[in-house]
Specification:
Length: 124
């Protein structure tokens, strides 16, 4: 049974930092691309960043987070991280990670497995 568990969310002031983790189990982690998405109240789930399955660690970011967020993975720990710096109030959302066998993508409908999410709240 595939399971993705996010952690690391919380309340932070604008300009602060958080590091989210996505721990995976029940799959051969190195074969899966991982994406981070977020969903604010009343809004659609939007793409944040993704990282390829292995080798080269190709990654891609939404324009809204480029230069502030960094995605990385540790295949030995079955974990993907999202380092979030210079946080803004508009970054407030539930952050979810998702797994997809093979290549990474920004298209949320192409991810097979999802975590439950972790809340990030940025105060002004």
């Amino acid at each position: 049974q595939v399971q993705l568990v996010e952690s690391g969310g919380g309340l932070v002031q604008a300009g602060g930092s958080l590091r989210l983790s996505c721990a995976a189990s029940g799959l051969t982690f190195s074969n899966y691309a991982i994406g981070w998405f977020r969903q604010a109240p009343g809004k659609e789930r939007e793409f944040v960043a993704h990282i390829s399955w292995s080798g080269g660690n190709t990654y891609y970011y939404a324009d809204s987070v480029k230069g502030r967020f960094t995605i990385s993975r540790d295949n030995a720990k079955n974990t993907v991280y999202l380092q979030m710096n210079s946080l803004k109030p508009e970054d407030t959302a539930v952050y979810l990670c998702a797994a997809r066998y093979g290549s990474s993508t920004y298209r949320r409908d192409e991810y097979n497995y999802w975590g439950q999410g972790t809340q990030v709240t940025v105060s002004s």
